[in-house]
Design goal:
- Keywords: ATP-binding, Conjugation, Cytoplasm, Nucleotide-binding, Transport.
- Its main location: cytoplasm.
- It holds the Pfam family T2SSE.
- This protein has three domains: 54 residues; 93 residues, Beta-Lactamase, CATH 3.30.450; 223 residues, Rossmann fold, CATH 3.40.50.
- The chain contains 13 helices and 15 strands.
- A nine-stranded mixed β-sheet has the order 9-8-10-11-7-12-13-14-15, sandwiched between helices. A six-stranded antiparallel β-sheet has the order 3-2-1-6-5-4, covered by helices on one side.
- Strand 2 and strand 3 form a beta hairpin.
- The model has no long low-confidence stretch (mean pLDDT 86).
Length: 390
């Protein structure tokens, strides 16, 4: 914060507004500034009023970063350590906070905007802001030295598949396979690590679904933004301070099945909802979602772990998985931080009856290259209008 607008002045403005019961409009913030007894010129008042209003109701010093359309993540690890990701890895910015208390105040204010509590008794929060931005914050002493703040920006418009090809996420010609995957109505999962672009790719693919189809989304935090005329969005809800009102993803999936979905989409499969999703995909519904995994080959084991924790035995889970899911698309971030599709796998049973994934396509700078599962994928895509990706 500038020397004109210090922490003491900010506290004074906040107190003045609270006592007056007035909304922090630009005019009232300017009025509160003058009430502090400081003689400021008109230009200084306007600049300070804008800065103070940002501190009081906006994202403070982070607002310019969040407004940058190229930024996907804003991470604060200390007052002088603010990082952003623009798709090419983390970059340290020149943005700073006055002190650790300023970071804490911002985190608590954003949590309050999201309707959540953040204090010493509940030192972390995971929530969604009204504009869709995903908020995570941890207070000291759980976070050593300073409040840690993580903001995942959700853009109002999904990327198109053409834009993902241009960005290098999809190799040249790979978009034809992905379009065919949607047209053939195959159920699929997108796997990858945190920040690898799973939600971005899934949103783009759902935008290719026919306009006559009804898509029902079930998410922990509403991040999917498919460009589609018929989308129903369901979001889970945490329990209130009395421990009541919890609505989990498994609840949402059960309700979604009663809403006549043509495609059922789970934003991230990470719990008991896997049982209901697999059951749905085995009863005539098409579906998709994302899952955290180190590699496409790890997806069956990941789903097995989730299913077992939910009470589904190993044999039953693999039987349902074999019938429910056809394709896994795996995303990675390379050493330069760029997101790309590393592999496309098909699912098959091994001699023991367990489901394994087989590489059908692998990333190539000029196009996908074929793997041992290519003929199987090609057979699954028969009937869809597409061209050879290689």
């Amino acid at each position: 914060m500038s020397a004109v607008v210090g922490a003491r002045m900010l506290d004074g403005v906040r107190q003045w507004l609270a006592e007056s019961g007035k909304e922090p409009t630009p005019a009232r913030v300017a009025e509160a500034l003058r009430a502090q007894g400081r003689v400021l010129g008109a230009t200084e008042v306007l600049g300070a009023a804008s800065q103070l209003r940002s501190e009081l109701v906006g994202a403070g010093p982070l607002e310019p970063l969040l407004a940058d359309r190229s930024v996907t993540d804003v991470l604060v690890s200390a007052p002088d350590r603010v990082w952003v990701d623009r798709g090419g890895g983390l970059e340290l910015t020149g943005v700073t906070f006055e002190d650790a208390d300023a970071v804490r105040r911002l985190a608590q204010r954003l949590a309050a905007v999201a309707g959540r509590r953040l204090d010493d008794a509940r030192p972390w929060v995971d929530a969604r802001l009204p504009d869709g931005t995903r908020l995570h914050a941890v207070l000291p002493p759980v976070a050593v030295d300073s409040t840690c703040l993580s903001l995942r920006v959700v853009r109002p418009r999904a990327f198109t598949l053409a834009e993902l090809v241009e960005a290098g996420t999809v190799p040249p010609g790979g978009d034809r396979v992905l379009r065919a995957l949607l047209h053939a109505r195959l159920s699929f999962l997108i796997s990858g690590g945190t920040g690898s672009g799973k939600t971005t790719l899934l949103s783009a693919l759902l935008g290719l679904v026919g306009p006559g189809e009804r898509i029902v989304l079930a998410e922990d935090s509403a991040e999917l933004r498919p460009d589609h005329p018929h989308v129903v969005r369901l979001e889970s809800r945490s329990a209130n301070q009395e421990g009541a009102g919890h609505v989990g993803l498994d609840d949402l999936v059960r309700q979604a099945l009663r809403m006549r979905p043509d495609r059922l989409v789970v934003g991230e499969v990470r719990g008991a909802e896997v049982v209901h999703l697999l059951a749905a995909l085995n009863t005539g519904h098409d579906g998709s979602g994302t899952v955290h995994a180190n590699a496409a080959g790890d997806v069956p084991a990941r789903l097995e772990a989730l299913g077992t924790a939910a009470g589904l035995d190993r044999t039953a889970l693999h039987s349902q998985l074999a019938a429910a899911l056809s394709v896994v698309i795996h995303l990675v971030r390379d050493r330069q931080g760029r997101r790309r599709i590393a592999e496309v796998h098909v699912l098959e049973r091994d001699p023991s009856g367990l489901v394994v994934t087989v590489p059908a396509l692998r990333w190539g700078a000029r196009s996908f290259s074929e793997g041992p599962g290519w003929q199987r994928l090609k057979t699954l895509l028969e009937g869809a209008a597409w061209g050879d990706p290689t």
